[in-house]
Write a structure and sequence with these properties.
Helix 9 links the parallel strand 7 and strand 8. This protein starts with 8 loop residues before the first strand and ends in a 19-residue tail after the last helix. It is globular and about 50 Å long. It is 36% helix and 16% strand. It has one domain (9-218): HAD superfamily/HAD-like (Rossmann fold). The protein has 10 helices and 8 strands. The protein has 237 residues and is α/β, with parallel strands linked by helices.
């Protein structure tokens, strides 16, 4: 008989770059193929001077390579966390949905998931457009209908799933802050830890998805979401 599962958690929303994948894929691509000063855009975002939607759109426009070249680079340099595919299969077998939410370029996520043997799962991300095989801008198909701060709204990715039960969020970076604020339980490491501490978000430390699975198996109740009435990243045009 399998171990008990925290049945209140019905969905696990997972960041991709640096979380499900061990590397920040967008950064790897920019370092290898960007034709402009993408790092100054990152610094402006970290200082709060530009939203991630503006930054990721400008950085995508700097990619100077065709799709095959970009994906070949990703497959060679950006391995998945080896515990993610087993975790996704375990979650499926226990009736828990796993969803990837990413504010990156997006086009590499499904190929990397498939190559790692991850069972089919929903992917919420930006839509990279192409002119033939060359990058031709992003569509923010998973942005908030009013707020233009982020390209993909991780707050929305969490809130849309809370009606079916508690939602866990797994992340590691600054772009995960807003998903963590609205999740019933957050798993945080690296930069996300400091954001959770500043925002008063209870979190579980984690190193790999075995840690996430063990907590879900423990039957411990989720601590509950902070859920501020307005996301601190709220930006309107």
């Amino acid at each position: 008989m399998g171990r008990l599962v925290a049945v209140d958690v019905r969905t696990v929303v997972v960041d991709f770059d640096g979380t499900a994948c061990l590397h920040d894929v967008a950064e790897h691509l920019l370092r290898a193929f960007a034709s402009g000063d993408w790092e100054s855009l990152d610094r402006a975002w970290e200082r709060g001077e530009r939203g991630s939607r503006d930054v990721v759109a400008a950085q995508s426009a700097m990619l100077d390579a065709d799709r095959t070249t970009l994906l070949d680079h990703v497959f060679r340099h950006c391995p998945m966390d080896p515990t993610f595919a087993p975790f996704a299969a375990w979650a499926r077998d226990h009736g828990i949905d796993v969803v990837v939410a990413s504010d990156g370029f997006g086009f590499y996520i499904e190929p990397l998931l498939a190559a790692a043997g991850v069972p089919p799962i929903p992917v919420i991300t930006n839509d990279q457009m192409w002119n033939g095989e060359r990058p031709a801008g992003l569509r923010f198909v998973n942005g908030h209908p009013e707020c233009v701060g982020c390209g993909t709204c991780k707050m929305q990715a969490v809130l849309e799933r809370r009606g079916g039960g508690a939602v866990a969020f797994v992340g590691e970076g600054s772009s995960d802050r807003y998903g963590a604020l609205y999740a019933d339980v957050t798993f945080a490491k690296l930069d996300l830890v400091a954001h959770c501490e500043r925002d008063g978000v209870p979190f579980m430390p984690w190193e790999d998805f075995d840690d996430v699975r063990r907590w879900l198996e423990s039957g411990e109740p989720p601590p509950g979401a902070v859920s501020p009435s307005r996301c601190p990243g709220w930006t309107i045009a």
